[in-house]
């Protein structure tokens, strides 16, 4: 830097110039270091979010906005609770609740019911010891549980389906108008099954079909969409294989067995409900990190409730 007298023609004395330069240098040092202790007071902390604000922010992104009828309600806690941390998961199990407590998270966003039935009706459970223990644990630690099922499935395209296809690395095969339909040049049922097991981390799964059969049209229906959707989808798209989360064994499974006896080239692969929709809960974590970056969020998988011998 030049030190001739022309450098000070803007009204600064040499002493004032040196003083200002020192202040600027000091600020640079401060910004280069972590903001701890008293230095943290120089930056205004992020505004706190309540549960309701985060819910409203997500619902605002959903086509149609607030639903008049939905299972996506609070299962415990108050919407006015200030959020200290968030856990996304498929099921707010007792184990998940305990892990949230250890993490200092007081807001759990679950995809499925908390109290063992679709609408989370608890009237019939009021004297049940397991329900009472779980409800008391949530209340004791001021944990809020929100089910985000209908809303996340209403996103266009369905965020859960897209997340599953992304994890399966099958997005490139998805139909642009109906992403659940995949078109392959040629692939065996065996290759499809083992690929799904690897990508979704499934140890064992159930299926109906010949593993050596060739497949070209595949349908992926995560979760438990029901026998009517299964059968209507098979009839409309004529897939060679349908991947689903779960079935009632006396419904879709028997339909596919009869379809094969009739001569149709159709297979059924049952992934398991959690395995088929878990990526949707991971999508929620990504959404939170993007839209509510000031709050610590974690995804915790409840794992499969069933074991296989």
Quick rundown:
By secondary structure, the chain is of the alpha/beta class.
SSE topology:
Layout: H1 14-32, H2 51-60, E1 74-76, E2 86-89, H3 94-103, E3 107-110, H4 129-140, E4 144-147, H5 150-154, H6 159-168, E5 181-188, H7 189-199, E6 206-208, E7 214-221, H8 227-237, E8 241-244, H9 252-262, E9 267-270, H10 273-291, E10 297-299
Parallel strand pairs: 2-3, 2-10, 3-4, 7-8, 8-9
Antiparallel strand pairs: 1-4, 5-7, 6-9
Helix pairs in contact: 6-10
Commentary on this structure:
With 309 residues, the protein is of the alpha/beta class. The protein has 3 domains: 11-42; 51-155 and 278-299, Udp-n-acetylmuramoylalanyl-d-glutamate--2,6- Diaminopimelate Ligase, Chain: A, domain 1 (3-Layer(aba) Sandwich); 169-271, 3-Layer(aba) Sandwich (Udp-n-acetylmuramoylalanyl-d-glutamate--2,6- Diaminopimelate Ligase, Chain: A, domain 1). Helices cover 38% and strands 15% of the residues. The chain is built from 10 helices and 10 strands. It has a 5-stranded mixed β-sheet with strand order 1-4-3-2-10. Strands 5-7-8-9-6 form a 5-stranded mixed β-sheet. The longest helix is centred in the first third of the chain and has 19 residues, at 14-32.
What is the annotated CATH architecture of the largest domain?
Answer: 3-Layer(aba) Sandwich
Query: How would you sum up the global shape?
Result: globular
Strand count: 10
Helical proportion?
25-40%
Q: Under CATH, the topology of the largest domain is which?
A: Udp-n-acetylmuramoylalanyl-d-glutamate--2,6- Diaminopimelate Ligase, Chain: A, domain 1
* CATH superfamily (homologous) name of the largest domain: NIF3 (NGG1p interacting factor 3)-like
**Total individual domains:** 3
> Could you tell me the radius of gyration in angstroms?
27 Å
Mean of pLDDT: 89
Order of helices and strands: HHEEHEHEHHEHEEHEHEHE
**Main beta-sheet strand count, sense and barrel state:** 5 strands, mixed
Structural class: alpha/beta
Name the poorly predicted regions. 1-45
Using the coordinates above, name the CATH class of the largest domain.
Alpha Beta
**SS element count, helices:** 10
Give the spatial strand order of the biggest sheet.
Answer: 1-4-3-2-10
